[in-house]
Amino acid sequence: AAVTQEMPCSPDLPPNRTATRGLRVCSCTAATLPAAARWAQVRSAGPPYPGAVNASDPSTRWNRSTQVVAAGRPDRVPDAEVGPSISLSSTYVASTEAGARGYARFGNRTWEALEEALGLLEGGTALSFASGMAAVSAALELTPPGGVVVVPDGAYNTTLSLAEHLAASGRIALRRVPLADTDAVVDALDGRDGPAATLWLESPTNPLLDVAEIGVLCEAARARGVLTVVDNTFATPLLQRPLALGADVVVHSVTKFLAGHSDVVMGAAITEDEELAERLLRERTLRGAVPGPFEAWLALRGLRTLALRLERSQTSAGVLAARLAEHPAVSRVRYPGLPDDPGHARAAAQMDGFGAIVSIEVRGGASAADAVQGGTGLWTPATSLGGVESLLERRRRQPAEPITVPVGLVRLSVGIEDVEDLWADLCEALDASQR
Questions:
Q1: From CA 17, how far away is CA 25, in angstroms rounded?
Q2: How do residues 381-397 score in pLDDT, each as one tens digit?
């Protein structure tokens, strides 16, 4: 029998667990159980439950391009809706059933449809969050107080800013490493000042597109008892599945490729580990980091076309990257799909494609890069990525951007427009930047 630790009931906090098997809930009636505890009861019984993967479900054997379309649908019964509807209720009729939602901060059937789809795609239990950073924050909270977090020296700047904020308060300690240097990352897991607690990976990284050796690093982390979190936003589960490579938790900015239309702010965290899923659920519930039902519905609708959008965008990105490598205004192209890119071999080994983000370094530094950003007519200068429209941005204009990012670097998020129109527009801006 598993060892458990019990705490008194509160409106939100379920009993703590110290083992991954079994769960005893405090001796109150089912009608008064906190909703989060009721969810924990359902989870401890195993799938099916919202956001989980049931290995006996035939959908687990479908191609992922089919799963994005078919997962998260209502039960197929006569006269049922084909797609999930939006549930806007803030509360529910009281129930004594285990796993009842009880209140909208604990569960919503529109989220659950999206979570089912994301869980199937990534191969774990999915939880949706109010934003990508809400998911990142919940994942960082898995680090014990004072624990060392190994982070890339070049990655999404808000993730690094949050980590620095937590380090300044003493909540965690930080250890920065060049992500592409596998030996350096492994060495950082040990460290001169003590072992790490969490390894934070992003692959490919934002915006340098460095590629981590995910499988090797996850194996090294697991051997040392280090938790591994992978931000899979750039790759999406269609191109890369970090849980299958050994990661403990995957996070996404659903805002980006998954939703894909620049009209949603949302995040997600996925794990195969039941205890980690419960801890992430507790973080979401207690901190109120829940998504809106309408946002969840929009994200799921956007997810339906992910395979088509990504295929188009990725193909165009490859064409543009090859042409940009020959353009005289460009000193360097960063794209793992190019054969001479430092991350090409790793990406080819662990990914099913190279993605739709390309970064270029413009000759002439910041002023020339600014001229490119301001000189396009089709490409939109904006800070996000992963939508149907093509966006570009000089990243070092952001005050929090790491100094490892060159001042003249422009990140390109390739959309689904005609590639020749995109090339002509970009060429004109690049040519003008050198005058």
A1: 10
A2: 999 999 999 999 999 99
Do the Cβ atoms of 325 and 338 come closer than 8 Å? Answer: yes
CB 109 within 8 A of CB 116: no
Residues 210 and 245 sit within 8 Å (Cβ to Cβ): no
The dihedral formed by the CA atoms of 183, 189, 192 and 194, expressed in degrees to the nearest 10: -170
Fill in the DSSP letter of residue 59: G
| φ, ψ dihedrals at 409, nearest 5° | -80, 130
Name the percent of the chain lying above pLDDT 90.
80
pLDDT band per the 50, 70, 90 thresholds, residue 27: very low
Q: Residue 340 has which token pair?
A: 């001479």
In tens, the pLDDT along 112-164 reads: 999 999 999 999 999 999 999 999 999 999 999 999 999 999 999 999 999 99
**Active-site positions?**
105, 156, 231, 256
Two structure tokens written together for 145: 């107080």
CA 6 to chain centre: 32
pTM here is 0.87
Tokens 């019964």 correspond to what residue?
77
Q: What is the DSSP string of 292-340?
A: PHHHHHHHHHHHTTHHHHHHHHHHHHHHHHHHHTT-TTEEEEE-TTSTT
Helix (DSSP H) and strand (DSSP E) numbers for the chain: 14, 12
Q: How far is CA 145 from CA 8, 261, 300, in A?
A: 23, 38, 35
Q: Which residues pair with 412 in a beta bridge?
A: 358, 392
Check residue 396 and report its DSSP letter.
G
| Three-class SS state of 219 | helix
Is residue 294 within 8 A of residue 86, CB to CB? The reply is yes
98 within 8 A of 42, measured Cβ to Cβ: yes
